[in-house]
Structure formats: C-alpha cells, structure tokens
C-alpha cells in the first residue's frame, strides 16, 4: 500500500473470523475475503490481535491450545499469500510498504494462554508477537481486567511477566486493564505502554474508556491512544457516527497532543455488523479530519504516522 493517506488500524480481531473459514477448508482467507475490503476503505496495515474466546479460557491448557491454533493459522496464511507480511522488526515495515504488501503486527489480547509459565513469552516473541495485554476484560493469573469486581491489579507473577516483556521488547497494551492494573503497569513497565483500542471516558462513560489522568500517563510514557470505532465507546446515547470518533480525536489531541493520537478501530466484520462504525464510514475519516480543521500532515499522523513512529522506536 503506497497511498500516503492509508490507515493503520491498531487493533483487529480478523483471526477470529479467519479460523472457522480455514476449518471449513478455505485457504488464503485474509487475501481473498478481507484484505480487499480493508484496502478499499484505505486500511493498509493492522495490529492483528489473537483473542482466545471465553469458552477456551476456563483453564490455561485450553487457552494455550487455542492460542497456538491461532498462531498456526496465521503461519499458514503467511506461507500461502505473498500479499501479506508479518512485521517483527521495523525494517519489515519499511520493506513491506515498498513492496506494496498488507502489513500485520501481531498482538495477543490477554495472556491467559501462558498460565503461570512465563517462558512461553519467549515462544510468543519467537513466533512474531510484538504487542500484548496481560488480560482481557476478566481476571487471570497476571492481572485483573476492566470487568473485574475485585480489581487486585497486576499480580507478582504479572510483574515478572512485564519484566520479561521489557527484556524481549514486547509492547504492553493496557486497553483492557482494570484501573489498578493500569496504574501498576505504568509503575512497573519501563518501555512503551499504549492503549491499542479505547476512547475518552470524559466523553463516554464506559468501563473500556480511559480517564484524563490515564490518557496523560500514556502520553508521558511516549505511548499512543488508539481510538476505537466501537459505538458504545463513542457515545452513551443514540447512534454513533464518524463525527463522534472525530470528537474523541479532538478531545484527546487537545488533552495530550496530536503525536499521541492514533486509531485502534476494532471493526466488526460480521455480516450486518452494527457494533462498530462500518468500513465505509472509516474510509471517510481523512475527509472528516480535513473538515474538522486538521492539516494533511496532522491527518496522516493520526491515520498512520504515529503508529509508524512508535513501531520504529519499539522494533528497531
């Protein structure tokens, strides 16, 4: 993708869509089913999340088995399709852009699969994981999630995991952290901390959104806030629109500076999906930012440039 106005989507659950199709015998699913739609909506790169579904998180063995299944199907997709490339070093990003490939940065959304075996973090890094969150909405052995009714924060084991992630250069994603877990991460992790997909709590009071103090803390760590297209994160009442996403962009830009503002869309790819803005709506973001008074350079920073800078700093 050589268009300078392309979008880097900092959070995508595409693998959850790909797996059942591969189980039905389909191959090259990303390239045949999804990437043409993404490119038509100006999305040229994504942080591809591995999210282990709730049914598989009852025990660490089942979670690890499901996690490795997702790693396996991605490996197969990469082998089958030259059109896509996995970014494990920033050189991969630059080369992939020049070659016109669709770029993937691999993330794990909740480390339930490693259980208490922190050596598995080395395995994940070996297979290309460069970003991870300790937990999803619920609790695990590492930390409490934003849906926790206990909010015990990051555990002793979780702090050891953060140390290993620091050593490996895995970016920590605080998107699903509980309030205490969030602040424990800020205190315990020395490298970049980001919010891959979440919005401003001041504009929409949802448990997955972040307070001004949290947003400022991420900015102070030279991190990014990837603003999401999930409608319930954008607006408390009524039907959310692209204008509401731009309203969050405006708010966070004014609060912490444009260099910390990015996109983590978390698009709903289901037929007749209604939980997020559509791909058509997302494709109008560049125009919407221009109409809101952003210069071309400022729009490009939000759409992809800030992600590029973060990856260059973290993966060089």
Describe what you observe in this structure.
This protein is an alpha/beta fold and 316 residues long. The chain has one domain (7-315): Metal-dependent hydrolases (TIM Barrel), CATH 3.20.20. It has helices at residues 14-23, 29-40, 60-80, 90-99, 120-126, 156-168, 179-188, 212-220, 231-234, 242-256, 279-283, 285-291, 296-315; strands at 7-12, 43-50, 84-86, 102-109, 129-133, 171-173, 193-194, 225-227, 261-263. Helix 4 links the parallel strand 3 (84-86) and strand 4 (102-109). The longest helix is centred in the first third of the chain and has 21 residues, at 60-80. It is globular. 46% of the residues are buried.
Number of strand elements? 9
Mean pLDDT: 96
Structurally, how many domains make up the residues?
Answer: 1
Number of helices: 13
Q: Give the H and E element order.
A: EHHEHEHEHEHEHEHEHHEHHH
| Major beta sheet summary | 7 strands, parallel
What is the CATH-assigned architecture?
A: Alpha-Beta Barrel
Provide the CATH superfamily: Metal-dependent hydrolases
Radius of gyration: 18 Å
The name of the CATH topology is TIM Barrel
Give the CA-CA distance, first to last residue: 21 Å
Which of globular, elongated, flat, extended, rod-shaped describes the shape? globular
Task: Provide the β-strand percentage band.
Answer: 5-15%
CATH C-level class is Alpha Beta
Query: Uncertain regions: pLDDT < 50 for 5+ in a row?
Result: none
Q: Which structural category fits the helices and strands?
A: alpha/beta
The helical percent reads 40-55%
């Amino acid at each position: 993708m050589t268009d300078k106005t392309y979008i880097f989507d900092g959070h995508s659950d595409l693998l959850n869509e790909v797996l059942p199709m591969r189980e039905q015998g389909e191959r090259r699913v990303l390239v045949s089913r999804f990437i043409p739609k993404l490119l038509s909506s100006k999305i040229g790169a994504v942080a591809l999340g591995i999210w282990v579904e709730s049914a598989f998180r009852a025990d660490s063995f089942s979670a690890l088995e499901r996690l490795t299944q997702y790693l396996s199907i991605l490996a197969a997709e990469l082998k089958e399709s030259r059109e896509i490339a996995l970014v494990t070093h920033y050189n991969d990003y630059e080369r992939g852009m020049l070659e016109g490939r669709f770029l993937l940065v691999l993330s794990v959304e909740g480390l339930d699969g490693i259980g208490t075996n922190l050596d598995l973090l080395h395995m994940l890094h070996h297979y290309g994981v460069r970003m991870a969150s300790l937990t999803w909405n619920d609790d695990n052995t590492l930390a409490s999630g934003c849906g926790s009714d206990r909010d015990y924060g990051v555990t002793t084991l979780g702090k050891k995991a953060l140390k290993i992630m620091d050593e490996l250069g895995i970016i920590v994603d605080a998107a699903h952290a509980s309030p205490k877990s969030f602040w424990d991460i800020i205190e315990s992790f020395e490298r970049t901390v980001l919010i891959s997909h979440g919005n401003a709590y001041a504009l929409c009071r949802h448990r997955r959104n972040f307070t001004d103090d949290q947003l400022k803390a991420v900015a102070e760590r030279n991190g990014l806030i990837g603003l999401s297209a999930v409608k319930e994160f954008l607006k408390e009442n009524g039907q959310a629109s692209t204008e509401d996403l731009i309203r969050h962009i405006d708010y966070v830009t004014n609060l912490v500076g444009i260099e910390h503002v990015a996109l983590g869309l978390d698009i709903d790819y289901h037929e007749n999906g209604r939980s997020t803005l559509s791909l058509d709506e997302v494709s109008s973001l560049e125009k919407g930012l221009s109409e809101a008074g952003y210069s071309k350079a400022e729009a490009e920073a939000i759409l992809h440039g800030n992600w590029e800078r973060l990856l260059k700093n973290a993966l060089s």
